[in-house]
Automatic annotation (TrEMBL):
GO terms for molecular function: ATP binding; kinase activity. This is 2-dehydro-3-deoxygluconokinase. It comes from Enterococcus canintestini. Pfam families: PfkB. CDD domains: KdgK (cd01166). It comes from the Bacteria. Keywords: ATP-binding, Kinase, Nucleotide-binding, Transferase. Residues 20-305 form the Carbohydrate kinase PfkB domain. InterPro entries: Carboh/pur_kinase_PfkB_CS, PfkB_Carbo_kinase, PfkB_dom, Ribokinase-like. Gene3D superfamilies: 3.40.1190.20. Belongs to the carbohydrate kinase PfkB family.
Length: 319
C-alpha cells in the first residue's frame, strides 16, 4: 500500500558522455533509469513518500536493470508484470552545451505496449492519496491507452486526486490531430492539469498562460486547478473559482540537461500536496525541484532528498 501511484513505460536510457557530439558519432554512454512517470515516482520516493509504479517490462537485462533501480529507489513493484514475449524499451540521448538534447527511442512493440489492464484490478487503493498520469503511456499502443482509461475509471471510483501532465511525444502518435484530441480528452478527467506553455500552443492554439488555463478549466467538470509551466519564469496558477497568480522560478547558474524538469515540477507539487501544504507553497517547491533537475545529466538524478531540498530553498533566490 502506497501514498502515491503512477503508470507508465520505464526506459533504460543511454546518455552520451560526449558534449555536442551527435548520437551517430558518440562512443561513450552512461546508463540511467528513465521514463517520465518513473521519474516522478523516483522523486516522490526520494522525498520520503511511499510510491508504487505500474507497468510491464521484458524478461531481459534492461527489465532486470529497471526493477533493480526501482528497488534501490524504494519504489513499489507489486503491480509490475514481466513477459518473455516482448522486450523492454530503451533510448539514446545526446549531451548538449545549450538547448534540449536529441533523443532516439527503441520502444515500438515493447513490453509496456502490451500491458494488460486486468493487472489494475489487483491495486489496493486504500492508502493512495494522489495519482499522477501523463500523456505518454496512452500514446504507446491501443492496449496501453485502454489500460490508462480503465485506471482513470478506478481512480474516479476511489475519489483519488489526480494530476495530469500532457507530456507530448508527437513521434508516438499517428497524427497531431489524434494526439491533440486524445490528450485533451484525457486531461478532462484530472483534478489538476499541468501543461507547459509550448504544449498549450499545440493543444489549444495559444501561448497565453491564462488562455491555456481557461481552456482546461472549461475542458471538463473534474478539473479544478490548472498550473501552466513557464520554464525559467516559473508557473501560472488558475483555479476554477477564478483566482489566479504567477509563482516565479529560481535562478540556475548552469543548465546541464533540461529533460526531467517537468517531471521534477510534478514531484514538488505532488509531495507538497500529500504533506498538506497550501497550493502556492506546493508550486514553489515544484519550481525548485524543476530548477534542481536541469543541473544534472540524468532524467531524475537531480531530484533531491528532503535535506537537499531544504538547503536549496534556503540558499537560492527566486528569479
Amino acid at each position: 500500500m502506497s501514498e502515491f501511484l503512477t503508470i507508465g513505460e520505464p526506459i533504460a536510457l543511454f546518455g552520451s558522455e560526449e558534449v555536442d557530439k551527435s548520437l551517430k558519432d558518440a562512443l561513450h554512454f552512461q546508463k540511467f533509469l528513465a521514463g517520465a512517470e518513473v521519474n516522478v515516482a523516483v522523486g516522490v520516493s526520494r522525498l520520503g513518500h511511499s510510491s508504487e509504479y505500474i507497468t510491464q517490462v521484458g524478461k531481459d537485462p534492461f527489465g532486470e536493470f529497471i526493477i533493480d533501480r526501482l528497488h534501490e529507489n524504494k519504489i513499489g513493484t507489486d503491480y509490475i508484470s514481466e513477459t518473455a514475449d516482448f522486450w523492454t524499451a530503451f533510448q539514446l540521448k545526446d549531451r548538449v552545451s545549450d538547448g534540449d538534447p536529441s533523443i532516439f527511442y527503441f520502444r515500438k512493440g515493447s513490453a509496456a505496449a502490451h500491458f494488460e489492464k486486468e493487472v489494475l484490478d489487483k491495486i489496493d487503493f486504500s492508502e493512495v492519496k494522489m495519482a499522477h498520469l501523463s500523456g505518454i503511456f496512452p500514446a504507446i499502443s491501443p492496449a496501453a491507452q485502454s489500460a490508462f482509461r480503465y485506471l482513470i475509471e478506478l481512480l474516479e471510483k476511489h475519489q483519488i486526486q489526480t494530476t495530469f501532465d500532457p507530456n507530448l511525444r508527437p513521434q508516438l502518435w499517428a497524427s497531431t490531430k489524434e494526439m491533440v484530441e486524445t490528450i485533451n480528452d484525457l486531461a478532462s478527467h484530472a483534478e489538476i492539469v499541468l501543461p507547459g506553455i509550448n504544449e498549450g500552443e499545440i493543444l489549444m492554439g495559444s501561448r497565453d498562460p491564462e488562455a491555456i488555463a481557461d481552456f482546461y478549466l472549461n475542458n471538463g467538470t473534474a478539473t479544478k486547478t490548472v498550473i501552466v509551466k513557464l520554464g525559467t519564469e516559473g508557473a501560472f496558477v488558475k483555479l476554477k473559482d477564478g483566482i489566479s497568480y504567477t509563482v516565479p522560478g529560481f535562478k540556475v547558474e548552469k543548465v546541464v540537461d533540461t529533460v526531467g524538469a517537468g517531471d521534477g515540477f510534478a514531484v514538488g507539487l505532488i509531495t507538497a500536496l500529500i504533506e498538506g501544504k497550501e497550493l502556492k507553497e506546493a508550486v514553489i517547491r515544484a519550481n525548485a525541484i524543476g530548477a534542481m533537475a536541469v543541473q544534472s545529466p540524468g532524467d531524475n538524478d537531480g531530484y533531491p532528498t528532503p535535506e537537499q531540498l531544504a538547503e536549496f530553498l534556503k540558499n537560492q533566490k527566486v528569479k
